[in-house]
Description:
alpha/beta, Quinone Oxidoreductase, Chain A, domain 1, Rossmann fold, 7-stranded mixed β-sheet, 6-stranded parallel β-sheet, 10 helices
Amino acid sequence: MRIAYFTGIGQIDIQDAPEPQITEPGEVKVRIDRVGVCGSDVHYYANGKIGDQLLTYPATLGHECSGTIVEVGETVRTLREGTRVAIDPAISCGQCDQCRAGRIHTCRNLRFLGSPGEAPGAVADFHVLPAENCVPVPSQISLDTAAVAEPLSVGLYAVRLAEMHSGARIAILGAGPIGLSVLLSAKATVASTQIIATDLLPERLAIAASCGANACCLAGEEPFPGKSGPREAEFDFVFECSGDPEILDVAQRLITPGGKIVLVGIPPTDRLSFDAHVFRRKEVVFQAVRRQRGCVEPAVDLLADDRIDASALITHHFPLENITEAFELAQGYKDGVIKAIVDLSGEGG
């Protein structure tokens, strides 16, 4: 089978490898049909690391994926050959204190697809996975859309963690795939929300508007309190989705006293700084988000029920042999890219 490897900074090679085989009764073998290029993948491509997670070359890549079941283990009853699935890329042990507490996303022995030293990356013709990591998708959901269920699940989890009330005033800083996933999830699950989205790129703001943002503005032009009134531009919840360390100051200016800042984006630095006096005077709550917990299936349900339309997220398609072009596009924010999808199987739907 074909499998993709990072072989150096800015280098991806497609190589041959043996197909993986089922070794446990609760596993399934999946033909990988689609893989989305994630911002974290781009960090590895451009820098060879994210924070303290450093690649050792050659390294497999990718985690946002959909596929089709081609074989099931002897104890698997919920899936069968031919089932199309969205894949949860986080494989938990089920035994540690975190798993027993229901925090499978912070499992002490977590194996995440494409993460250094953990599980093989998704960009391969076949994968063997625990059956519980595969969520069936109905026929009305395309393989492309199923591949973005994972980033949507991160946005949905962030919205759930925020515990927002009806009519909440929300600011989303960064209108990339994760920021848009937060926007779509908030619109689908929180009643009468008022949402402003900011970004450096006008084309992303246009997509945010099409996804339901009530207002959009370029980063640096946020309506800080005092511009149009003392409280008009204060927000109950601010979602930081850009990963830019400097944005915390913006978030603190925008947040209302007692509000919550939800940190979703992955910063490139090991340390973050913020104004401690604004933090204490406003009694701000910082909420970190670690990927997602149990939200892939609910994200699929929202897609199936047409409560979320993810079509605006998927902007580009590439065959596997052109995967480097997909990464170059995503790295340079070129051609209005939001999500580039790599097609491994050529299967339609």
